[in-house]
Design brief:
GO cellular component, one term: nuclear exosome (RNase complex)
Protein name: Exoribonuclease phosphorolytic domain-containing protein
Distance between the termini: 40 Å
InterPro entries: ExoRNase_PH_dom1, ExoRNase_PH_dom2_sf, PNPase/RNase_PH_dom_sf, Ribosomal_Su5_D2-typ_SF, RNase_PH
GO molecular function, one term: RNA binding
Number of domains: 1
Structural class: alpha+beta
Oligomer: single chain
Order of helices and strands: EEHEHEEHEEH
CATH superfamily: GHMP Kinase, N-terminal domain
Strand order of the largest sheet: 5-4-6-7
Family: Belongs to the RNase PH family.
Number of strands: 7
CATH class: Alpha Beta
């Protein structure tokens, strides 16, 4: 278990298959230091995404610890970690003004090709992430008030394709928000139904 600790929010990761860690974006020779650096990058991204968004006046002297278990590395790792963190914080009753939802978007054209008909893709798998340029976008808010709270891009892409990828990613975040909202509401109804009985 490796983690990152800040004043308010702490993330730790438990990897079920440490040999599969190269799928998180580290290519070439894998050393323990490279694994730790990649995990630290993920922790920092999660911390900088969530810390300003949490309503911390009620928990000012507390530390929130999120332990995320990565069971399978099949692509879209950062967006899965952000969405899992959102659900965990909501389940724990940590106040937030709105959900933070994330999605991965990519382009069907590589950086070097000059393909004018390149289409943006949504929710890339591991193979697509290794071959195509992609970004992970996280939004907070609902409706037209969506605001981008995190944008991570580790590959090169032509500037003309970035706007399309970002638009598809933000639309994907809206779809993820609808799914999360349905799950949270059904779980809340079950909890309230059990409390009433």
């Amino acid at each position: 278990m490796v983690g990152m600790t800040s004043k308010l929010l702490s993330f730790s990761f438990c990897l079920s298959h440490i040999g599969d860690l190269h799928y998180t974006g580290i290519r070439g020779t894998k050393t323990n230091q490279e694994h730790r650096r990649r995990i630290q990058e993920l922790s920092n991204t999660l911390s900088t995404t969530f810390t300003p968004h949490l309503l911390t006046t009620l928990t000012s002297n507390s530390t929130i610890l999120l332990s995320l278990h990565i069971l399978s590395l099949d692509g879209s790792l950062l967006s899965a970690l952000i969405n899992a963190s959102t659900l965990a914080l909501i389940d724990a009753g940590i106040p937030m003004p709105s959900y933070i939802c994330a999605c991965t978007a990519g382009s069907t054209s590589s950086y070097s090709s000059n393909d004018e008909k390149a289409d943006p893709l949504l929710d890339l798998n591991l193979g697509e992430e290794q071959e195509l340029p992609f970004l992970t976008v996280a939004t907070a808010g609902e409706g037209d008030g969506d605001g981008v709270v995190a944008l991570v891009m580790e590959t090169r892409v032509q500037a003309g394709r970035l706007e399309g990828m970002l638009a598809v990613g933000v639309d994907g975040c809206k779809q993820v928000r609808e799914i999360l909202d349905g799950v949270i509401r059904s779980r809340g109804k079950k909890m309230l139904g059990g409390a009433m009985a």
